[in-house]
Amino acid sequence: QLQLVESGGGLVQPGGSLRLSCAAASGFTLDYYAIGWFRQAPGKEREGVSYISSSDGTTYYADSVKGRFTTSRDNAKNTVYLQMNSLKPEDTAVYYCAASGIIRVGAELSSKEYIYWGQGTQVTVSS
Hints:
By secondary structure, the chain is mainly β. It is built from no helices and 11 strands. The chain has strands at 4-7, 10-12, 18-24, 34-40, 47-52, 59-61, 69-74, 79-84, 93-100, 116-117, 121-125. The strands form 2 sheets. Strands 2, 4, 5, 6, 9, 10 and 11 form a 7-stranded mixed beta sheet that branches. A hairpin with a 6-residue loop joins strand 4 and strand 5 (47-52). It is globular, with a radius of gyration of 13 Å.
């Protein structure tokens, strides 16, 4: 079973940047999986943030992060990244990466499409 490990979270001031990483545990490869990033703030539902395909690197973003967040993948390092710039207090949440072999068109940011999940990493944006 694919195991995912997120890292890179922390405390940052508004306007700052963080880069989250999502790596596959030893013995697994991310090459054939689409990867989604999700976040969940206290008292709120889990929200889809970004998606990157397994094949051609197609990406999608939630409107709330478009222009500020960028997802990318480095198959040689077996890692997917979420670069977060111009962070706002409302970006504070636990961030999760998730993987699936098949994602229905139009459902790229739906958590229901993803099978494998990491444990999450906390991102706090505060002065």
